[in-house]
Amino acid sequence: MRVALIGRPNCGKSTLFNQVAGYKAQTGNFHGTTVTFMESKVRVAGEVIDLVDLPGTYALEASSPAEAEVANYLNTRDVDAIINVADGSRLAESLELTLELLPIRKPLLLAVNMIDEAARLGLQIDGPGLASKLGVQVLPLVASKGRGVKNVFLAARELARGKRSEGTRMNIDCGEALARHTAAAELASQFVTQGQRKTSWRDRLDDVFLHPVWGYAALITILLLFFTLVYGLGRLIEPPLLLVLQRASTALIQPLGLNSLFGTLVNGTLQGITAGTAIVLPYLLPFLLGMGLMEDTGYLPRVAFLMDALMHRIGLHGKAIVPFILGYGCNVPAVMSTRTLEEPGDRYRAAALATLVPCSARLAVVFGLVAFYLGPAPALLLYIFNLFVIAVTGRILSRLQHDDSPGLILEMPPYRAPTARAVFNKAWFRIREFVVEAWPALIGGSAALALLSYFRLDGFFNLLVRPITWMLGLPSATGLPLIFGVLRKELSLVMLGQALGTLNFGAAMTPVQLFTFTVFVVFYIPCTATLMVLRRELGTKGMLSISGITIAIALLAALLARAVAAVLL
Amino acid sequence: MRLLDVEIGHKVRVVGFEGSGLNSRLLRVGVYPGDEMTVMRRAPIGGPLLVSVGGREMALGRRVAARIRVEEL
């Protein structure tokens, strides 16, 4: 038995799904597209049903590929019942979709969510009246608190079994969007009465968070807090984690002999696993949890509102701020978050620019080379230079791409208290997606590199990258660390010690070389994990073109840095 | 007049949208000609407008707001 959840964005549909979905929930793709939905087995009174969470949809009438897929899915696949989740605090808007669902010959149920929110706004909804008018069952729901969830699924099961006969559905001519809009507004005025509105502290929050001065002060404070917490958590987890992994791999490899072919292969594989784990646990997990929290409280749209003007200067709009914030932690969740942008052009540009943001791994290289040997001022200069390069690249890309995006159109949901379960579930789904997508490439690539160095092909590597290292005036031996850096950016730093034969980089390289090397590492090709996520979000072509762009930018930026450093350092 | 020129706190009615791309985007999020809008806030330095429409709040970029025709109520 399969039950589908459908509703507008922000109606709490995914909250409902996360309330009942198990950790085994799967991401599915509509046939032949990248439009995804979530599916999970859910137990309802002893019976297992398949629950499908369709992407948030304003209308079935296809104006975006996602909406076209949703409409197709409902009509063709074996969906036994549809649960239409409506936002009770804005029933008129939600009913527009309901009116489109009525003509579909499938058992249908209207779950009016957020009735607590509606009550707070003084709205009283006449559920039975609406039900008899529409001809479908109408049930109250507070998904975030788990209230009414069971009733909704029990009713859906009955409907799917055909045990409950439905009333005669309301028959309106709703071919036109405008006709539906008017009809829905009429229905709402008939069955929703406006009582006394209670103003609460939530209504006053935006007076601070969207204030021309305090809003930005709050934004900076919240972001600082976010990064301190997330980085702090990562730094707490990483050293013991790496220690355990290192011990485990030493114990495993010792009996094999480090210099045997098999030992090398195992070592390479283990390094790949270490790289994968070292990304997921200390960085991805805290960042995804933090992002989920900001998302579910409703603060992220406020950030978009505040930053829209600034983002326009680099050819994007406010919604694209999220990938940039996340990028400073890890580019992987940054690229994942570009999914929320509607226009493909915006998505591509935001992803391309996000990969230029120095993530925490690159921060390690900047600290280890520039800040340590040259001092904090050049390190700060490097970060400012990075912002400058991102801004210029953004402007150039939006000129080249013929920007057709109308700009920011974004609903501001009311502030909501996030639930731990929804935040954890969301982070878990995203991490699993990442592991499936990126780990095979990380482990395979790592093993392949280990093999190549076993057969003493590092000279070949250095030769391969020689055109670049020569152009930048770097020692030929830096070629191998640059290649390893593609697996995990901080490997550039680790491998540099091996390649130069000393850990005192200040003695082996000149200040100008150190600065140039770091600038190149910051900009060139995103790491393997990011590449895999880029391929998932933008396709292979997008991944390849962004890699090409970043190499070109890295070369130009490093050449410029070399010239500037030669004067300043 | 344009939505962009409406002052904070003023209520207007949407007359129409200029440009086809914008039309479909706004209809998709449920903003229609005939809807009543109140301008709630403006972000500084060329930022977006926050409007209240149909019981919810929406942020509209300045380029969007410049292409929405409205009439004063």
- How many DSSP E strands of chain A? 10
Uncertain regions spanning at least 5 consecutive residues of chain A: none
Helix content of chain A: 55-70%
Mean pLDDT reading of chain A: 84
What is the distance, rounded to the nearest whole angstrom, between the alpha carbons of the first and last residues of chain B? 12 Å
The main sheet of chain A orders its strands as 2-3-4-1-5-6-8
Main sheet of chain B, how many strands, which sense, barrel? 5 strands, antiparallel
Shape of chain A: elongated
Query: How many helices of chain B in DSSP terms?
Result: 2
Largest interface: A-B, 36 and 32 residues
Assembly state here?
A: heterodimer
Rg for CA atoms of chain B: 11 Å
| Inertia-based shape of chain B | globular
Radius of gyration of chain A, in Å, reads: 27 Å
Fraction in helix of chain B: 10-25%
Work out the helix count of chain A.
23
Name some characteristics of this structure.
heterodimer, A: 569 residues, 63% helix, elongated, B: 73 residues, alpha+beta, globular
Any overview of this molecule?
The complex is a heterodimer of chains A (569) and B (73). In chain A, 63% of the residues lie in helices and 9% in strands. Chain A has helices at 13-20, 65-76, 91-101, 115-120, 127-134, 149-161, 177-191, 201-209, 214-253, 261-297, 299-313, 321-327, 331-336, 344-354, 360-374, 376-400, 420-454, 458-471, 479-484, 491-500, 505-508, 511-523, 528-568; strands spanning 2-7, 26-29, 36-44, 47-53, 81-87, 108-113, 123-125, 137-140, 192-194, 409-412. In chain A, the strands form two sheets. Chain A has a seven-stranded mixed β-sheet with strand order 2-3-4-1-5-6-8, with helices on both faces. The mean pLDDT of chain A is 84. Chain B has 73 residues and is an alpha+beta fold. Chain B is 18% helix and 40% strand. Chain B has helices at 20-28, 62-65, and strands spanning 11-17, 36-42, 49-53, 56-60, 68-72. A five-stranded antiparallel β-sheet of chain B has the order 4-3-2-1-5. In chain B, a hairpin with a 6-residue loop joins strand 2 and strand 3. Chain B is globular. The model of chain B has no long low-confidence stretch (mean pLDDT 87). Chain A binds chain B through residues 8, 58-59, 63-64, 89-90, 92-93, 96, 121, 177-178, 181, 185, 206, 210, 212, 301, 304-306, 308-309, 312, 317-318, 342, 404, 406-412, and chain B through 19, 21-22, 24-30, 32-33, 41, 43-48, 50, 54-64, 67. Strand 10 of chain A pairs antiparallel with strand 4 of chain B.
